[in-house]
Amino acid sequence: MRTREPLSKDSYGTPGERLSFNDINYSNCLILLGEAGMGKSTTLEKECKKLEVNDEQKLLVDLFRYANPARLNRFIFQNPEFVKAQKTDQEFYLFLDSFDECHALNPDLHLTLGDLLKESITLLPSLKLRLACRSGPFPSSLKEELENIFQAENVKTYELLPLSRQNIIEACEAQSVDFEAFVAEIERQRVWPYTEIPLTLIHMLKIFARDKRLPKRQTDLFETLTRELLREQNIKRIDTHDERLKGKIDEDCRLKAAEYIASASIFTNRPFILLNGAETPFHRNELAITELVKNTKIIGHSKINVTPSVPIRVRQWLCENLVYNSRA
Which pLDDT value is given to residue 142? Predict the structure, then answer.
């Protein structure tokens, strides 16, 4: 399996294109895409802190907490910082994180956000938007709306690239792991794709630091890393009191569900899973959610009664788990 050419840390763009955040931070509207665990939230937090040091006007919002439209409007667009900025000519940076998580709870979020931004740009022409979302769930209609609001030439979309060889070297140094020995194990197991995801890379480094090697069998390592990906990583969702946001399927059942979905996809030769809940796929290589959740499905010891809301929950689960991402 080939390795990627080294990319600079926190790189955005496409393969062959190497850009740091400073290279792309000039746009009025910047859309940052990337799979879960790739560093989108960390990037926004880091850039927000830079502005804080320079005493620039900014507001960082975790949309996960504001699925309710009224609450969203009140916290962002009626926020004292936002209102104060309207009285100055200084640029105001609005960082919106976790769009995909909020959108899973409120499917009309892109419409609500578009309307609020359209109204706000007239009150605050110096507004600069920085929006982070996972690659798959970002609606194209929102991008079109943002292009209407900010003008198409001022809207740029970039995707956070997978970790590079240099990133892996730095991670090994941080974990006090010998890079050459670790790479030898990666080559032996042929699991380079897992090193491109921060979450699984860190987990592999912990295993290697403890045992001085990775599991002997590739299948054992694959199951270990897959379970790590299926485990709830979002501390906000773990701690929330909102039952809608808490996972109700344990790790073993999630693994069986992943096996079921993968089997359906592989043995029907349909690698693309249609997330819009359509009864019939548009193309022969698409597998509709509704085909996966007919009537009642027994997964492990859990019995799932299929209702109209189930395709939405399956869509959310597929979008939130790294096992099924836009690169798969």
Answer: 92
